[in-house]
Amino acid sequence: MRTLSTRAPESADGTTGPRAPARRRRQVREKQWPAYVFLSPWMIGAGVLTLLPMAVSLYLSFTDYNLFDAPNWVGPRNYVELLFEDPRYWRSVGTTLLYVLVAVPLKLALALGAAMLLKNLNRGRAFYRSAFYAPSLLGASMSIALVWRALFNDGGTVPNLLDAVGIDTGGWVGNPHLAVFAVVLLTVWQFGAPMVIFLAGLQQISPELYEAAGIDGAGPWRRFVSITVPMLSPVVFFNLVLEIIQSFQVFTPAYAISGGKGGPADSTMFYTLYLYERGFTASHMGYAAAMAWLLLIAIGVITLILFRTSRSWVFYAGEEAR
């Protein structure tokens, strides 16, 4: 008769006995510790410079804090005042939403158009790519924003050029209906970063797809709609998410063009500019912290919606049709 073996199972490294799993786990940890050593600067930085300040700001959002005295706990009063008692807060929300809805599509459309032109350019592509990308590096600076303010101010270059062709707008900076669009144009001018990403995506589309569509009689517009847009949809989605997040946080152009006041008539009172005014000008830091957390929640919700809806229009190569 066959007898069952009572010998303890042997592990992969030759160890036996009930302590073998614990010994294997210890060996795995010994192999992993160099990775934790190299990751430790980032982990410490994330904890000290990001997570800890976020926790402190969350606490301050429930307090009355003026930067000089100890925080005074007031509970949800800051949030109630923001949502139900502060009309300037909602004006800043409306101004920011208008800016996002206008600036982001224009910027992405211009970036995609420039990328398609560069894709078909045989000579000088590197030069034009660098030239178009340069505003993305310079546009966020205060000096460029001040130059932009001078261009659109009363008597500036842009109003004078428009007046020369019979369009009398006056200075955009002092016009409540046009001031926000001066900030929009400054943002659109910085289309270089998404353009480079679009260009990389366009270069990944197989030319055979366009050749097959041309043989079937598809024109340029049909090829763009049926090939370029679907194949480029992951890149469009990536740029869209980044640009929306950045647009909600716009500050420097609004501060420079409005002189830090959000004028005229709060037409350039963007969300972050109002947050800055309440926190550092009026010294209501608890109120500003509550505004910051509401902005974080809003951006998170919008990003979540974009990711959920992307399933219906973003196409990934090799993915089955949904």
UniProtKB/TrEMBL annotation:
Transmembrane segments: 33-60, 97-118, 130-151, 178-202, 223-242, 285-307
Gene3D superfamilies: MetI-like
Cited InterPro entries: ABC_transporter_permease, MetI-like, MetI-like_sf
Origin: domain of life: Bacteria
Principal subcellular localization: membrane
Keywords from the named record: Cell membrane, Membrane, Transmembrane, Transmembrane helix, Transport
Subcellular locations according to the entry: Cell membrane
Region span, Disordered: 1-27
Entry membrane topology: Multi-pass membrane protein
Domain ABC transmembrane type-1: 93-306
A Pfam family per the record: BPD_transp_1
Record family assignment: Belongs to the binding-protein-dependent transport system permease family.
Name under which the protein is recorded: Carbohydrate ABC transporter permease
